[in-house]
Amino acid sequence: MSTPNVSLIDVATYLPGAPLGADYYAQFADSDALRDNVMFRAPRYRHHVGPDETAIDMVERAAAGLIERHGPDVLEQVDVLITHTQVPDMAFYGAGGGIAHRLGMRPDWVLDLHNGGCAAFVLGLQVARQLLGSGAGRSALIAVAQNAAGQVFDQPGVRRKAQAAVPGDGAAVGLVTVSERSPILDVVCRTYGEYAGDMTLTMDPPRKWWQAGPGEACIGFTESKITKVLARGNRQVPEVAWAVCDRIGVRPKDIGLLVTNQPNRVFLRNWREALELPTERHVDTFDQCGNLFGAAIPINFDRAVGDGRVAPGDLVLMAGFAHAGDFAGAAAVRWGGR
Q: What span, in angstroms and rounded, lies between the C-alpha atoms of 172 and 154?
């Protein structure tokens, strides 16, 4: 019995609020030893989640695009719901159950993925492909919400740091079905567990993240950690991209469109060069949206489709890495058009 083709049929996205310019952070800027580091060269704009806006709200607003294009019943038929939220609204569980209820879904599978980080959409494609390909259902929804910029990074003490000006918020959903329309040709995901403890939160005075205290939590960056993350990211994304291309029998320079996460401009440039791709074949919304974490890949792909940068039949390569380099993934899709 042959395995059925599983396709990424469509993506829909949401960016909260009006764009915030670089001058927003300039008014708070403080002395910071890392301010001149290439890791923290700020985008021109980014979006922030609203003060009372939840991850479920963001996903619902992203899903509106799917409903508009595919009809009001498209989500009722979903068998598998896969979610990733950068900052869960509740500490003890993910958003999957709430998303299913809000969208009127009754899926057989609800999976909240935390380890995928900035490559969560690729991990979601792998999980959906495996489940649908094995007969667990006919359709899946991948929902990703990045909501750290307007919450963690906009705390009064944190917004003075160089790291605060880089992230932006947004959400996206991807519809995956058993069909031959836009086949997911292959997916490669790799876990580098030896780096799993290298991304940390820091507070002053030190405490565990859930303990009360006066200091606000931010990411514990140091020059040494940044050097390691840059080296890992520069290596891992091209590695998984090459691995997928090898498995489907193409060279990276022959793909139609590269879609990645976008931590900063340095990574974007280095990944293009490593894969021998011109700028016009790599989607880059960094100056409009900042670092979108796990939402970057689907938001960037949606932007490329809307702008006419990818045509039916084009080979799309999606790739990214997560956290301090503990996970990386790449997926190849033969886009069938919207």
A: 22
